[in-house]
Design a protein that fits this description.
single chain; mainly beta
Length: about 220
């Protein structure tokens, strides 16, 4: 069901390379993931409550200096790519996030816990303070993503030159619980609530493009 990558590793897929598992990076450093399709467990590990399952890629335990580049990540049970517990200095670039269907589960209901990217695991985790320096650029949040593109706490986060097209979503880019976000030159098409600020979050929006969007 899951596997762990060691520190100081570069994993580059040949054309069509796919990992169908949950990838764990706990307390690791100096890792590059590139040119891979990562398909999560799609709630098979927790069918009554997707949030109790594994992320397609989970980064925690103060893991740092990680680069995810040119990936296609989908169908995580809890999330597609979550970074928590003091994770730091991470870049996500040229990556597509999606879910293969409008899944639902008994606990979450119709939204199916189709939550893509969580930064900071709770409002009170002291491990996140002073960490979560994370950059998202040239990514695509695509079919059936409901929310968390990303959902943020505490960190300093730069979100630029990304594309958002998951029609029927709840919200897109979030700043929460003392997070500081610079959100610039992204394109939001046909989505709900492109920008959302809650719980003392801070967001600066610069030259974003909104086409047929609803809400904030």
């Amino acid at each position: 069901g899951t596997f762990t990558v060691g520190s100081n590793k570069t994993i580059i897929g040949v054309c069509g390379a796919t990992i169908t598992r949950a990838i764990k990076m706990n307390g690791l450093q100096n890792i590059i993931f590139r040119n891979l399709k990562v398909v999560g467990l799609k709630c098979t590990d927790s069918p009554q409550d997707c949030s109790g399952g594994e992320d397609a890629i989970g980064v925690d335990g103060a893991a740092h200096h990680i680069w995810f580049d040119h990936l296609d990540v989908s169908n995580g049970s809890d999330g597609n790519l979550d970074m928590t517990q003091g994770a730091d200095f991470i870049t996500i670039s040229w990556t597509k996030f999606s879910y293969s269907s409008m899944r639902s589960d008994p606990l979450s209901g119709a939204d199916g816990h189709r939550f893509s990217n969580l930064l900071g695991g709770s409002d009170t985790d002291p491990a996140d303070v002073g960490h979560l320096n994370i950059t998202f650029h040239h990514n695509w949040w695509a079919d059936n993503v409901n929310q968390r593109m990303p959902r943020t706490r505490r960190g300093n986060i730069h979100v630029f030159n990304n594309l958002y097209t998951p029609v029927g979503n709840l919200y897109c880019t979030n700043a929460g619980q003392d997070a500081k976000l610079l959100v610039e030159r992204n394109v939001y098409i046909g989505v709900n609530r492109p920008l959302e600020v809650v719980a003392n979050g801070n967001m600066r929006s610069v030259e974003n493009v909104f086409t047929m969007t609803m809400g904030n």
